[in-house]
Amino acid sequence: MKRGLFRPVRGFQAMVALLTLFIVYYTYWALHLTPEYDRGFYLDDTEFVKAATYDPEMRSTLSKWRREHINQVPGNDIEDPSLTKAIEDIRSQIVAYDEDADLWDCDPTLKLPLAVAIPEYFTNQNSVKPPVQPFDARLTLAVYYNHLYRLLEKGQPLRVPFHWSDWVDLSKVHKYIYDRQPSDADMCRQLFDLSGDEHKQLRFGSTVKPVEEYCRENPNSLTGFEVFAASGRHTADGKDLSGKLFLHSTAAPTPHRIVFLTNSHIDVPLEVEVENDINDIEYSLMHSQILEAGLNDTSIYPNRSHVNVLESYRRLASKSQTNPKTSATNYMWLEESDFDVNPKAALESIDNSLPWESAYADAIDFSLSVDKPPKYFNEANILKSVTDYAFGDHYDWRFFKGIITSDIRKSASLHRLIKNYLNFARQTELRTWIAHGSLLAWYWNGIAFPWDQDVDVQMPIADLHSMCRRYNQSVVVENVGDNKGNFDGFGRYFLDCGSSITHRNKGNGLNGIDARFIDVDSGQYVDITGLAVSEDKMPADLYQYADSEQRRMSSFDRNKAMTVYNCRNDHFVMLHELSPLVPAVIENQVGYIPHDVVQPLLQEYGLKSVTNVVHHNYRYSPELRIWELKSLLRDYLKNPEKWLDDHPIKLGPDWDTVNASRNINFDDDHAWDNDFDGLTNIDVAQLLKHPSVFRKQYKSRWFTRYNQGEVDRVINFRYAEQLMAVHELIKSEPALGSGLEPDYSMTQLIKDGDDYAERVNQMVGLAAAMG
């Protein structure tokens, strides 16, 4: 039996077993569960469920479970007007107690430091001009926005200079510039050599790369030496420094283009060519003259001492027109041809006058020339003797600044990654969808899990080729302003495609990821994998649907005939499970999900993944619609009196009351599951007094509410309703597209203070001392 003709099940036995499970479950539920809310009940996982395809009874069961355990929890209504007022009262008080500025983005009265001082050496030729200047995203973006505005006004080509020091904080390199050592100092070995006996314990369990394979003397460099390749395993500090030295050197490639994103009401990016192909400091803002060239234009620099980055963005955005193709969301249909690309044919249309097209052709030639391609992406591999060394594998070595231990920082970084990747894909009309753990997170509340380390997306091989041809080695810049004209973010991202795109089988396993969308502020990334027909063998649960003729075919021909596609990590999927892609809202961005969401989740993670409210040290709270630490919830539930005393926010007698302590063993997940009757509105208000809970719930509150309805529509294939809901949301919700988590650069400015002028003066003083 062909699976494409009979898609509801994968085998008669699977259907019988599935229906049996449903009957047993329904009978047990009807006879044994009381009318009270049974919080902990979840569906049992079985092996055959992983092999089951679409079954209406299973979806009905899952929908019923979601209604009773997620969407309609008794005794609580988080949309209740009185609770909404209490939450606003909490907000006004909690931001006043926020000494660490962790909740700055929840304070609408806060005046953001959007204007930045223009260093005097740009306006006064007699001022000392240092060889390098401090990094500030506001200055870089404002100057580039203003320069592009002038080019558009004059009708000139959009070409700009580029040096990485204007886009990434490379301040760790400055000490080696202002205190440059003589050539015989051998700085490479001083900084990175771990071969000596004194480092024997540090090296234990790790293979250390010889220093000369990644660092060398270079008298023409400002530092006198340079890092030209990844260092292999090293200390976290060593990885951080080596990445910064690499980006400052001429060894680092410059991007082919800079893609400036706009807000979702405009949805048209501004694509700009980089004019230099060498990462030379002469092309930085300090030396390229693009700031000085516009200073006499009072329409963009009314004040020669400061420039406001949001005003500069708004001015440039005013030159853009709305793109009706991307702003009107609809299905995205995928065809068999999207998963089978002839790369040699693509070379026939190459325009070698465009550097990105020429680079794409070179990449195709290289990929076709090697049988066993070497590993392309290098992570921040940390010595195995270091605690939590494995976390370095979730960062690109070039942009690594250390393992992020703060939950606030990590969740904000991942949120901004997926936000800007989806924005980029939508504005450039690339067909892509969230996958794996990111898709599972969307199922629960539309937001990345707090324990996630990266983001996973997929695309057809045709779109992977299109993306890499047009945008490989591009810097993508977040829209500074949102749909309402308010500040959104300073994010900058680097899109990097691997060097073996024509290889579509697993091969040596070194290149399972085809491309990455990398946060240049942290090194965290979105993993991008292309799906294609390949010669890899499909799993047995798919092979059983091959007919006699297909079984005699080669693996490649059989996969093609059955429309079975895979990534290079051998995750297989059938075309009908993907197409048509369905619009959905992910992390407050319009993106796409597969046509069948339940099927890939059940296959990859099992049934408990969509029904178990406990994972790692977290518990899902349907009342708050967030995953929260079990320990935090336990602290409140076990001793609400102490919680009330520990949190000084006052809401009045109707809210500042203490629910009786539940006589439940909250240290036992099973007891918690079966005996706890849920949170009341008073519980919710009390929990929101905790800054961590408030931060996660407040700005996402409307979005997670929307997500509940969206998931129910999608898992039941009510796609006409889903299309209508997304269309209405685009038209009516001005907050759609804005960041739900705080921007990293703005957070640093607010926490540390706006000291850019002071940092510039320190540089000028060092330069004057050097003579």
UniProtKB/TrEMBL annotation:
Keyword Membrane: yes
Protein's name according to its UniProt entry: LicD/FKTN/FKRP nucleotidyltransferase domain-containing protein
Compartments where located: Membrane
Membrane-spanning segments: 12-31
Cited PANTHER family: FUKUTIN-RELATED (PTHR15407), RIBITOL-5-PHOSPHATE TRANSFERASE FKTN (PTHR15407:SF28)
Limits of the LicD/FKTN/FKRP nucleotidyltransferase domain: 426-548
Bilayer topology annotation: Single-pass membrane protein
Biological process per Gene Ontology, one example term: glycoprotein metabolic process
Gene source species: Diutina rugosa (Yeast)
Listed GO CC annotations: membrane
